[in-house]
Amino acid sequence: DAKTTQPPSMDCAEGRAANLPCNHSTISGNEYVYWYRQIHSQGPQYIIHGLKNNETNEMASLIITEDRKSSTLILPHATLRDTAVYYCIVRVARLGEFQGAQKLVFGQGTRLTINP
Amino acid sequence: NAGVMQNPRHLVRRRGQEARLRCSPMKGHSHVYWYRQLPEEGLKFMVYLQKENIIDESGMPKERFSAEFPKEGPSILRIQQVVRGDSAAYFCASSPLGRSRSYNEQFFGPGTRLTVL
What we know:
Chain A is an all-beta fold. Chain A is built from no helices and nine strands.
């Protein structure tokens, strides 16, 4: 799996957009970018993933640069509940058609603190 | 639609005892993954199982640890002769088989916090 680089911590004011960067300069053509978060000791929560196009869902937006060497997770209107460690992970989608999703290799992530 | 269930949520064992951690995947999911999170550290993959098969155990310690996912019942992570260094949060995740909207995702349970005295 390609390695990712994230800032160890970030702060953001409540109600503002939180932009979390991730560098993955060695990403391969068949590797996706995934984002998970872990809210204080809970199990990690899937947020979003993408291959090369920008993606948006009810939780966040994912912006992937054209060369795919970096990406940004955007939480458009951060709330206090978004305080968590955010993990950027790159990996191939599946091991095979009838096999499960590939294991996740977590780095240290970014500790995002939303301030009132 | 119940999520991934793990029990117990908290487990206390004395050194040398055995610990059994259970994981029931989401309905319709046939793939289970176990991860460990040591205090103040990130999550580390341990093992990936399908029903009655271990697919990838590259993250499992060589001794004392074993995992199974029987045809019927939950997946079990078993730690024999626990030591203080086994104290950690153990998370289970599951993913569905086949092509569905969420087939690339892993859904995590709330974890079991093991404390070894």
